[in-house]
Structure prediction request, 650 residues.
Amino acid sequence: MPRAPNAVDFWRGFALVSIFINHIPGIFFDKFTHRAVSISDSAELFVFLAGWSLRYVIGDAGRPRPMHEVVFRVGGRAVTLYAAHMMIVMLAIAILAATARLLDNPLLLEWHNAAAVFYRPVETHVGLALLTHQLGYFDILPLYVALMLFAPFLAILDRIAPALLLPASFVLYITSLVVPLTIPAWPIEGQWFFNPLTWQFVFVLGLVMGRTSGVGGWVRRHIVPIRWVSLPIVLIGMIFVLTGGKWIDPTSVPDPKLLFINGKTFATPIRVIQFLALVAVMSIVYPYIARAVPSAVGYLSMLGRNSLEVFCAGSILSLICQILRFALPDGILLDTLLLIGGVALMGMVAWLAEWRTRVVAVA
Amino acid sequence: MAGRVAHPGCGGSLKRLAYVLALAAMFAGSAAAQQAAPSAGSAPATEPKQEGQLPPVTRECQIGAMDVVTQSPLPNVLKAVRERQKLKILAIGASPVVRRDSSAGDYYDLVEQLLEQTFKGLEVEVVHRGVSGELARDAGARIKMEVALVEPDLVLWQLGTADALARLPIDDFEDSVRTTLVWLKEHNVDVALIGLHYLKSLAKDTHYQAIRRALKKVATEQGVMRVGRYEAMETLARLRGEQGGQAGRSRMTEAAYECSAEYLARAIATGLFHKEKPPAPPAKPIN
Prediction:
């Protein structure tokens, strides 16, 4: 039996639907996702919850799993994520190629960084395998793969010196912002859209906050005052976004500039602080939502329980929706159909994943 | 040939790294002093030395009297060349483009090569920050961050195609582009816009054409350089006979990229030759 709906699965399902919508640029419903009123967006939520879930693999301080088991499980997860990423990238390339032929529109071959795949395939296929070449909107899983490759070291550090886990992550984060350090892209020059060296901090925050001991325990004990401190941060962030984010001129802030500006690539402090404040404030609402709309909570929790399958399906579906929005007369009606159809198909994928698990369990 | 960078804000990186490590180890708090001070401005002002005339337009890119570039003075580029003999270009926008011949570099390398050949001693550095499929509104936010980190003299911004494919509202597109151009002007950064792609079948696509017109309008209104890739490609296609099959269109796309890079480099060079006009003599009173 799948586990009952809970806050983590619900918010993960929420993030998956948000990512699906945000990955269809121009769709009417984009303005109703939380990034319209928040400095951080669903990417932070997704990575934070990925870190949160890592504690289930690592185990709690009271009941630690054997170290070799943790390393193998986390490493195996990285391989699974890598395979999933490769599959959806190949599907995306095939979809773009087929659509370019079908619509007789070679521009689609150049969409979302795919041009190099078709025009310079030799180097680019190496880049795809090495994750140094990423298609547009297919760049979160490479980050997740990098984080899971990094996770065995986190697990070891967590076991031998748990108090050092967050400070070590913070030092790497700050160093990467100040230098700044990035992971280069190849063969097309540039850099990873999501910098793993900085995003690892969001991941580790999820890991330590997910615990009932240490930092996570402290946060739980003081959640009420933390919420009161967080509320104005969330409100200020909302006003910041609604007014176009013009308060901070990136050229006017002191060096190192990344410490003071809003940059998604680097998960800059302004985003992380606002995100943590948002988590603190929103952590109160789940029980109310669960009581008010239990069916929606159940549905989103089902998506969240099967996040990898749903994420992969959502990535491909969002690309198909982009193509349909280009090929068909646009309007709210089409956008509504795409949203309903996309979320329904994501639900079907989650249901199938759970059905398969049940069948295997019975067998 | 200028070195390429793989990380933003490359100036003083090692110093900053040492600084951070020391900070982490010792919690020493003396901040700002370690930041590398920019050296610009110390060199005496010199005119850019022109190696010779601009090389003639390559035969493949000759399109007669068709004007595909909206020329505009580039005061900040000129200043950088005069004071530093170095030009830093930020390449940003929706379509990091590639050439089939990997040894030839990308299309921005063509710009770099042509400028370095034309101006003796000029060092051109192109920092690539393109994100494929990125919309103008998202690029606008990222441009501000990258300008702060890279401190470019010129931004090459490819835009429009992704917005047109995503069916973005025309007004939103226009506002996003205008806001970013105004911001760049206020921050003394020149900009060259590289417009939409051409495809015969898109000639009747009203939204695509509306985005194209909007870009042209904002570029004219803000007085910034614009390379009309669409116009160039359309003219090339007409001169060479229409595009034919898939292979023909693919070759045409590649030719359009090559020629757009050439037109762009020539436009920047022309911008550097541009002399500010002396103030007009006061008009004689008419009795």
